[in-house]
Amino acid sequence: xxxxxxxxxxxxxxxxxxxxxxxxxxxxxxxxxxxxxxxxxxxxxxxxxxxxxxxxxxxxxxxxxxxxxxxxxxxxxxxxxxxxxx
Length: 86
Description:
Elements: E1 7-13, E2 16-22, H1 26-46, H2 52-85
Antiparallel strand pairs: 1-2
């Protein structure tokens, strides 16, 4: 995708404005930003003493943890599907 075809939007995450550029739709990018904002606020509600940097790292750790779980589930489902096809 060329530079002219990239989506550019402004989003608010945890009270800060960020410019996002990507090949996804603006709706998708806003959903991602909203989910990051929600997760940061959730983590902050459990530990209000975290500074923003630590809060961001814990949000990233949570996101990668969720990604790994979903990836493992997908791999198991793909194995089951392959067995059913054979």
